[in-house]
Amino acid sequence: MKFPRPYTLSEIASLISCDFIGSPDFMVLGMNEIHVVEPGDIVFVDHPKYYDKALESAATIVLINKEVDCTEGKALLISDDPFRDFNKLTNHFKPFAPSNVGVASSASIGEGTVIQPNCFIGNNVTIGKNCVIHSNVSIYDDTIIGDNVIIHAGTILGASAFYYKNRPEGYDRLLSGGRVVIKDNVDIGAACTIDKGVTGDTTIGEGSKLDNQIQIGHDTIIGNKCLIASQTGIAGCVVVEDEVTIWGQVGVTSGITIGKKAVILAQSGISKSLEGHKTYFGSPAEDSRSKFKEIASIRQIPNLVKSIKKLSQ
Prior knowledge:
CATH architecture of the largest domain: 3 Solenoid
Mean pLDDT: 95
Number of strands: 34
CATH topology of the largest domain: UDP N-Acetylglucosamine Acyltransferase, domain 1
Oligomer: single chain
Low-confidence stretches: none
Largest sheet: 10 strands, mixed
Number of domains: 2
Radius of gyration: 23 Å
Number of helices: 5
Distance between the termini: 74 Å
Structural class: alpha/beta
């Protein structure tokens, strides 16, 4: 998430009432999660296990809960609760803006696009040309949709990320200030849910086709010309490269990459990154040929047991 203008380190520290290390005039351009940070961004860290990762990332401002040595060219915001203060910044720069109309006045809808009854189009949504948005679709604020996109009934674009911190009093939600971006020529089936990024974009690439009842988590990137079948669930921060095929009821864990032109067979569980140009099956998913040989071998176990019993008699 980029800020509407450059802020100084002292201005940001004032917004969240915290101390800082670095020049008061140090420029702050935005805030992001660690996997998408760029120079000028704030990243937060609240566990010693991840201090080095945050400090060595591309982010030049680290919101941290302990005073540590500051790398040259970087600055620190010292907070007793970085998670809370990251939420404060999100709420300041991307506050929730209610709407009392079906299509917000700030929404932009392209020529030839059809919006069927009972849809909700939120603030600052952009929809391109020649799209069809079927009934009961909800498109949250700041979503961007390209040209020639079809979205079927009951789909929701832009719900909050499923991202919580476990506190003694209960789960504390990390606020989502990102977007959903749908590129040109995408088809999205009925009753799909695509969550917005925490600070970045959840993206569906050009020409990709999604079946009904698919869940895609925050900050996930789906490449171009992908096919994803019904009841697939993809967690947050996943990269699905171009021309990947994912068949029904596949589950994908967070933070992994599925390589170009991979094929994932139905009911597989993806627990780690997978190379492209291969077919996978099983849970955890493995090369399908090896998996099918393994299954065939397991089926021979009863016959082997019978043979051993006969030999022992």
